[in-house]
Structures are given as structure tokens and as C-alpha cells.
Amino acid sequence: MNRPDSTHADRIFQALGDATRRRLIDLLGSGPRSVSELAGPLDVTVTAVMQHLRVLEDCGLVATEKIGRVRACRLRPEGLDVLDAWIRARRSTWEHRLAALSDILREP
Amino acid sequence: MNRPDSTHADRIFQALGDATRRRLIDLLGSGPRSVSELAGPLDVTVTAVMQHLRVLEDCGLVATEKIGRVRACRLRPEGLDVLDAWIRARRSTWEHRLAALSDILREP
DNA sequence: TTGATACTGAAGTCAAAACTTCAGCAAGGA
DNA sequence: TCCTTGCTGAAGTTTTGACTTCAGTATCAA
Questions:
Q1: Which residues, at least 6 apart from B37, have a Cβ–Cβ distance to it below 8 Å?
Q2: What CA–CA distance (Å, rounded) separates B11 from B60?
Q3: Where is the HTH arsR-type domain positioned along the sequence (chains A, B) (predicted)?
Q4: Domains of chain B and any CATH numbers
């Protein structure tokens, strides 16, 4: 079924769930690129890159700007904040629960 | 195309890319559950839950153990470490690059 | 022993989404 | 002006993977 994703974190996980998009992200990691500069190494058509960029832009991981006839694409580091918050929230909850459990087990 | 995922982080993103699996993770956040206790709230068959558990177990986010005829499922907090490392690595790289860029722009 | 419960495995269905082709259009250069 | 480059949009194809059904198997309890 896979209900519609709602939260920001949901959309980011959904976006990063695709291997091509993660590779795109890593390409942009070494600096801004145009759409066709991304299509080459990714070995897909420029149209496919456009579609991936749309997804990544929608969830805040990438920003693009059209200058003349080329579209400049770059990463948005703040985009990772939501992901980081997701991890922190879970980690602290899970670890607290485990700690509480082991306290109980230590009872006489 | 979407080539086979190779790294551990890749498999985790792939796993968390699915909304049902994220909900499953959140259910386990409040304590261990059996397969059928998960299937109820998720509103899918036990078979579907089994398949999701397989994925989550393979990437180290969940551990399960069969006791008698019920399979006990629990989270593995360490599973998040890989994800956290992925974020940190990118964040620091991206931010350094941006810092370097703004240094250049500040040049006379 | 019998029946109910809890999962497992194989096999198939189906919809979402990744990707393509193709026909534009606008910008830049010769 | 004319050609090339770089992107865009619509539409269709193909693949992936989430989900189901159904037929087991093992465990537990009466």
C-alpha cells in the first residue's frame, strides 16, 4: 500500500531511497553542476536528471537556478538538518528505553 | 536503471525509503513486538511484515529472534550509527566547501 | 490427539516510480 | 540570420518492489 508520505523527514527518506539520487547528491558534493554535467556520469538522460532534481529540490536537499540556458544545481547543506533530527530523536528514545530496561533487570 | 545498492548506508536508505518500514520502526520504538502485533497496526498481512523485517534485519536496524512459535522483534539502536556517519561526512564536506567559497568571494 | 495459533515460503498481482523518446523552445555563438 | 546547445514537457514503456493469497510447518494448549 505505502501510504502517502507526509512529513518533511518522510519526503527526504523517500528521496534518498533511490540510488541514482544518492549518486547525484554525491556528484554535487564536489561542487555545482549543470543538468547535463550530471546526466553524463549518472548515465541517464537529461530528462531523468530533471525529474530527480525536482524530487530533491522539493524536499530541500538541492537548489537550482536557471542562468541563461543552463540550470546550475547545488546542494543545500541545511537540507540534512531534518534527517539529523530524525536520527537524534529515535536514538535518544531507543537508548533511554534500553537503559530503563537494564535498570529493571538490575533490580534485586 | 537504479543499480544494485552496495554500501551499508545505501541499504539503510533503501530500507527507510519505504513509509511502512518507517512506521514499523516507530512501532518498535515503544518496545519489542511479535510479527502479528506489528501487522495489526500497520494494516498489512503478517507475510508483508515478514518481508519488511527481512529488509530491516539485513541492514542492521532490527533484530529478531524466534522463541517457540513467536518471533520477537526489536530495534538495534547501533543501526543508526551508519546513517549518522553518512550525514556527518556530507555535512562537514559541504559546509567546508561553502566556507572556502565564501573566503574566495571575500578576496579583494 | 486434536485444534488453534504464529509464522514461513512460493508464487503471483498490481501500482508507483524510474526511465525513455520525441517534439518543442530559448539562449548563445558563428 | 542560422545552427547548435541545453533544457523542458508530455506521453509512453519498463522495472521495481510492496502486497496478497494460499498452502505448508512447528508450537502450544486442551
A1: none
A2: 9
A3: 1-97
A4: 8-106 (1.10.10.10)
Residue of chain B minimizing CA distance to A31: B97
Most confident of B5-19, B48-62, B80-94: B48-62
Strand nucleotide closest to residue A70 (CA to C1'): D6
CA B76 to chain CA centroid, Å, is 10
Write the single-letter amino acid at A79. G
The answer to whether the CB atoms of A29 and B93 lie below 8 A apart is yes
Cβ-Cβ contacts under 8 Å for A60 (sequence gap 6 or more) = A8, A12, A76, A78, A79, A82
What digits encode the pLDDT tens for the residues A52-74?
999 999 999 999 999 999 999 99
Spatial distance between the Cα atoms of B71 and B65, rounded to a whole number of angstroms: 5
Which residues lie across from B34 on neighbouring strands?
B72
Q: How many CB atoms are closer than 10 A to CB A12?
A: 25
* CA-wise closest residue to A58 among A99, A104, A21, A19: A21
